[in-house]
Amino acid sequence: SGVTEVLAHRSDSLRDKFIEVPCSEDYDSHKRFEGCTPRKCGRGVTDAVITREEAERIRRIAERGLSLGGSDGGASILDLHSGALSLGKHFVNLYRYFGDKIQDIFTEEDFALYRDVRHRIQQRIAQVFGISSSSMYLTKPTFFSRMNSTEAKTTHDEYWHPHVDKVTYGSFDYTSLLYLSDYTEDFGGGRFVFMDADSNKTVEPRAGRVSFFTSGSENLHRVEKVHWGTRYAITISFTCNPEHGIGDPVLG
């Protein structure tokens, strides 16, 4: 249709913006968990949960971790939970690869901040969707991403294709993104796009902004290619199924 609406401009400071959309049938093909599995679906944006200063501190964690590796293509990831780190055209396990040296890269404070931020995002999602925060579990993959304009070398670098999180990762019920850099200041392109039947709705990243949504086909989305600069974000995902839950990352 070619119609594009901006849900959240970089210059906006949004306390809470939420748009309800009808739930897809994706959740019916998975076990339902009463009081958690989405009955109300939609997407929200808030600039009031994480401060810009906290986002900068978190970005430094990402920069330090990713400086140890990095993909040959335009997209690199760092997963503090599993230890997965992009290196060339592959991934290595950060914890195995660097061993005890990991203590020189990250501090206990880094991991405490990461946990605290994750916890606040989880509480906000629970509040908006009217579910209990304790019925949600962190799930994998939950990871930092760094994107730049280098052309893709492998399929892992091709992040711009439309996709549905619940279809890609069956465990996802709620997806959130915490942006760690600013659209038009730090990078060009790289907006987040919800692809609805009648129009595209974009979120312009800004440091500290949290975008969150139910993970089914009601929220088909993609990320625009980054044209210049570097875009940092964390994807933090939640499941209603305790069997798919993961713990917070632990140092050492």
From TrEMBL:
Name of the gene encoding the protein in the UniProt record: Ogfod3
UniProt keyword terms in alphabetical order: Dioxygenase, Iron, Metal-binding, Oxidoreductase
Oxidoreductase listed as a keyword: yes
Alphabetized PANTHER family for the sequence: 2-OXOGLUTARATE AND IRON-DEPENDENT OXYGENASE DOMAIN-CONTAINING PROTEIN 3 (PTHR14650:SF1), PROLYL HYDROXYLASE-RELATED (PTHR14650)
Pfam families referenced in this protein's UniProt entry, alphabetically: 2OG-FeII_Oxy_3
Name of the protein in question: OGFD3 protein
Listed GO MF terms: dioxygenase activity; iron ion binding; L-ascorbic acid binding; oxidoreductase activity, acting on paired donors, with incorporation or reduction of molecular oxygen
GO cellular component terms, semicolon-separated: membrane
Cofactor(s) recorded in Swiss-Prot or TrEMBL: L-ascorbate
